[in-house]
């Protein structure tokens, strides 16, 4: 079928869905005890102002989408502001790409504003950028190019 498993596709798949949470440890416990999700990876990203955890199941491979829990390190961070304005909930939808520079170029050409002039460092050494939620029709879209030896 046209476009399926085609290297010219802009996106590979949904990489993760990011949820803003006020308290990372409490949220990991909740998602584990109620929904059975397991913690696969955890890190602090000072630049983004977040403490984050990737959740998945024991069986899933890299091809499956994860749940990302995002807790603010500071009130004036992106997640801190989101929690202040909207409360806990879905903050972002992340699409995986092969080449973030090329995907960003194509999206800019199609009129999308990317939030950073150049990709920044994301989870597990990935390269990330975001499409402005106003351009993506109300959804903050993250682009993720995984590190070649990605461990999450
Ligand atoms: C804001 N808006 C959103 C939104 N955040 N709409 C959907 N989803 C969101 N998450 C809407 C607001 O309601 C508002 O609409 C308009 O966008 C402008 O919002 P604002 O309140 O003026 O703007 P700010 O100051 O809150 O900034 C929003 C913006 C910011 C998206 C620019 O959050 C940002 O730079 N985000 C990118 C970085 C980020 O999210 N980092 C944390 C995740 P109205 O209609 O009221 O005008 S780091 C991460 O995810 C890494 C670790 C990883 O995955 O590897």
TrEMBL record:
Family membership: Belongs to the methylmalonyl-CoA epimerase family.
Keywords: Isomerase, Metal-binding
Organism: Tessaracoccus antarcticus
Residue stretches making up the VOC domain: 13-146
EC number(s) recorded for this UniProt protein: 5.1.99.1
A biological process term (GO) from this entry: L-methylmalonyl-CoA metabolic process
Gene that encodes the chain: mce
Protein's recorded name: Methylmalonyl-CoA epimerase
InterPro entries noted in UniProt: Glyas_Bleomycin-R_OHBP_Dase, MeMalonyl-CoA_epimerase, MMCE/EMCE_epimerase, VOC_core
One Pfam family recorded for the sequence: Glyoxalase_4
Keyword Metal-binding: yes
EC class name: isomerase
Gene Ontology MF, one: methylmalonyl-CoA epimerase activity
PROSITE patterns for the chain: VOC
């Amino acid at each position: 079928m046209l476009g399926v498993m085609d290297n010219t596709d802009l996106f590979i798949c949904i990489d993760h869905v990011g949820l803003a949470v006020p308290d990372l440890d409490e949220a990991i416990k909740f998602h584990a005890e109620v929904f059975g999700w397991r913690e696969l990876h955890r890190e602090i990203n000072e630049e983004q102002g977040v403490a984050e955890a990737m959740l998945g199941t024991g069986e899933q491979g890299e091809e499956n989408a994860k749940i990302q829990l995002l807790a603010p390190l500071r009130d004036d961070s992106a997640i801190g502001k989101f929690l202040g304005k909207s409360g806990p909930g879905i903050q972002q939808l992340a699409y995986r790409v092969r080449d973030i520079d090329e995907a960003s170029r194509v999206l800019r050409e199609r009129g999308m504003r990317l939030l950073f002039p150049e990709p920044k460092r994301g989870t597990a050494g990935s390269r990330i950028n975001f499409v402005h939620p106003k351009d993506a029709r109300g959804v903050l879209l993250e682009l993720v190019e995984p590190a070649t030896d990605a461990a999450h």
